[in-house]
Amino acid sequence: MLRQWVGCARTGKAIINTASNVRRHAFVLGHHSGLHRHVHAGRRPIGGAIQERDHSDVTLTRTPILSDAQRRTIYALSTPPGKGGIGVVRVSGPDAIRVYRAVTRSVRSSAALSMREEETPTPWVAEYREIIDPGTGEKLDDGIVLFFKGPKSFTTEDIVELQVHSGRAVLTAILTALSKLHFCRPAEPGEFTRRAFEGGRMDLTQLHFLEGLRDLIEAETEAQRKIAVNGVGGTQKAKLESLRAKILDCLMYVEGFIDFGEDVGELGQEDMLENARTRAQEIIDTINSHLRDNRRGEILRSGINLAIFGPPNAGKSSLFNFLAERDVAITSPIPGTTRDVLTLTLDIGGLPVVLNDTAGLRKLTDNAIEKIGVERAGGVVEGSDVSICVLSLEEVISIVPSSDQRAGRIMLTLPADVLAHLKPHTTFLFNKADLTREVTGLSRESLEHEVRDALIRALPVPAQQKGPCVAHMWIVSLRTGEGTVEFLDGLACLLRERVAYSESMSAEDAPLITQARHRDYLESAVKFLEEFQEFPLSQIDIAAESLRYAARAIGSVSGIDVSTEDVLGAIFSSFCVGK
C-alpha cells in the first residue's frame, strides 16, 4: 500500500512500503530557500542536531475510501419502519464486532473509547447497552444487543442485532450513525438472505421456499397467507417435483430406446416411443390445466384489480369512499370532479383487492385534463380483473306506458360510452335507489327483479354474448345506506368466484402458479414437450434433449437444476431490504 504525504509550504512526497519488514525510511525531497536537503528519517544529519519535521507542512492521513465490494459489512432495518414497540437493526459481515464496539457501550459506566475497542461480545447472550453516535459519543437510545458468531448465524457471518425503540427519529439516528462507519454500507434488498444462500445455509432446492417466505412476510389478507404457507410448507414444490419426475420417467423410455434399441424389434421400438409420447401428452394436459386457471394464483398474491367506472356523477367516488370506509375521493354534484385514477388496497372478504376509482366516461367534454382522465379510465377498465359499472338509476330508467306491457313496466337506457367498456367480468351497481322508488311505486324486491330483466334487454347482442355478470347486480342508495349490506356480501361472493377461492380451500386446491416467473417456465415446458412429440423415430436422440429441457424448465420453478444468476437475482432483489 502506498501512502502519500503532501507538503503545503514545501513540495515533497514520502513513499512508505508498509509491506516491508525492514526499518521504514522516508525520503523527503524538498526545495526551500534555494537549498536541496536530504533527510534520512530517524538519523542525525551531518553537523547538526536532530531536525524535527514541521507537521504544519503535512496534511493528516485520510481514511481510504472503500468500494462497495470492499465494504463487506452490511446493515439494514429488519422491521417495518414507523412507530412500534421494537425496531431491529441488523448488521452482518466480517466487521460486525467493530460495529458493536463503535456504536454501543455499557450502561454501567461511560467506558473510554480505548476500553471499548477491546470489548468482545459474548455470542448468543442478550446485553442491555447504550446505542451511541460513533463520532460524538452521544447517546441515541438504549436497548438489547445480540451477537451471533458465524458460521452459527442466519447469514453464516458475524451478526449484530440492535433491538431498540421503534420510533422514526430513533431509527433514523441509528442508521445515520452506522452510515458514518466507512467499512459499512446499507444492505441491498434480500442481501441477508442471499448471503445465507451463498454461505450454504440454504441451497437451490429451497428456492421455492424462499419465494414462499417472501410472500408470507408480505401477506396482508387471509388468502395471501394461505397461499404463502403452501409455498413455505412445500406443497407447491411437491406438485412441481411430481411433474418433473413424470418427465424424467418419460425420458427413461427414450434413453432406454437409445441405449438398447438394437435389441428391440421394429414393432417394440414404435411401442416404446408411443408410450413416451402418451406420457408426454398426459404431462402437457396436467400443466395446461394449471395454466388455464385465469391467473388466480397471481391475482391472489398481488391483489384482485377492481375498477369502478361509469358516466359522470353516477356515484363512483361515493362507492370508492364507501368501500374505503373514509373520504378518499372528492365528491360533488359537478360532473367531472374525478380527473385521475385513484388507487387503494383493501381487504374484502379475506381477499386482497386493488380498488381503482376512474373519471366519468363521456366523450363530449372540452376540458383537456378530463379527456386524459377518460382515456386513463378506459385503460384501467380494460386491464382490470373485475369491474363495477356504476349507474344512476334515475337517469337510465324509464317507465313504459300502461297500454304497452309487452316489454315490462321498466326500460333501461345504457350510455354508449359505458357499453363500449363492458367485459365478461363486468357487474352493475345502480345507485340512488331512494330517488327512484317513489317514481316506480314498486317495492325493493320488485324493483330489483324488474331492473334485472330490463338490463338483459338493454344489453346489445354482442354484449350479451360476452356475458356481463348480470347475476351479480345490485340496487343501492349510497347516500342512505339502503342495500349496501347485500352489496358487500354479494361483492365478496363475486370476488371469490373470480379466483375460485373458499375459506376451506385445502393445500391441494391451492393454485400452483403464483408468479409470472412460474407461468413462463411452465409454458416453456409445454413447448418442449410438444416439440418432443413432433420428432420422428430417426431423431430420437434430439427428442431426448427436448425432454431434458422440459425437466429443466420445471426445475427452474422448484429450485432443481437452477444455476443462472438472473433467476437468483430476480428473487433476492424482491425481498425487503432487511431480510
From TrEMBL:
**Classification via PANTHER family:** TRNA MODIFICATION GTPASE GTPBP3, TRNA MODIFICATION GTPASE GTPBP3, MITOCHONDRIAL
Keywords from the UniProt entry: GTP-binding, Nucleotide-binding, tRNA processing
Which InterPro entries does the UniProt entry name for this protein? G_TrmE, GTP-bd, GTP-bd_TrmE_N, GTPase_MnmE, MnmE_dom2, MnmE_helical, P-loop_NTPase, Small_GTP-bd
Q: From which domain of life does this come?
A: Eukaryota
Location relative to the cell: Mitochondrion
Where the record annotates domain MnmE helical, the positions are 210-576
Q: Which residues form the GTP-binding protein TrmE N-terminal domain?
A: 73-201
> What does the similarity note say?
Belongs to the TRAFAC class TrmE-Era-EngA-EngB-Septin-like GTPase superfamily. TrmE GTPase family.
Q: What is its main location?
A: mitochondrion
CDD domains (UniProt xref) = trmE, TrmE_N
Tell me which residues make up the G domain.
306-395
Q: What is this protein called?
A: tRNA modification GTPase TrmE
Q: From the Swiss-Prot or TrEMBL record, what is one GO molecular function term?
A: GTPase activity
Q: Which GO BP annotation is one of this protein's?
A: tRNA wobble uridine modification
